[in-house]
Every structure is written in structure tokens, then in C-alpha cells.
Specification:
alpha+beta, four-stranded mixed sheet
Length: 79
């Protein structure tokens, strides 16, 4: 399972499919977070909340923008 973090990468992954779970930082309720949650629900991905510290640990960085996604399978890159 792969991890993708950041608002736009997670939204793109949701569009592409294969996202199993999205974790949003607790207390994050801005427009970007709301859009990710909506897209995750539309993609039938599980949505959960976690602390920013937990997201830091999962992403391996604090640059996750409050959003982390778990993707099954590989990536299909396009030119």
C-alpha cells in the first residue's frame, strides 16, 4: 500500500481510483479539507480523522497539508 499526502495529490489520486482510505487532520475544516472529504466519499474511500502528529508520522514529513491517503496497487503514469 502506498501513501500520498497533500491536498492536490490526494484529490488526483481519488480521481484516478484505488484510494482505500483518506485521513484528515482533526479540526481541519477549511474548503480544501471539505473538498477532499467530499471526493473521498464519492470515491467510496474510508474517511478518518487523526492528529497532525499522526499525519506527520504517516507521511514522514509535516508538509502533508492535513491530508494523507492510502492507495492500493501501483501508479499508472501518463505523459
Amino acid at each position: 500500500m502506498r501513501i500520498v499526502y497533500g491536498t492536490n495529490p490526494v484529490l488526483e489520486a481519488l480521481k484516478a481510483g484505488g484510494v482505500e482510505k483518506v485521513i484528515v487532520a482533526s479540526g481541519k475544516s477549511n474548503r480544501a479539507a471539505t473538498g477532499v472529504i467530499r471526493a473521498a466519499k464519492e470515491a467510496s474511500a474510508v474517511v478518518a480523522r487523526a492528529s497532525a502528529a499522526e499525519l506527520d508520522r504517516l507521511a514522514g514529513t509535516s508538509a502533508h497539508q492535513g491530508v494523507v491517503a492510502f492507495i492500493s496497487g501501483g501508479f499508472a503514469y501518463r505523459d
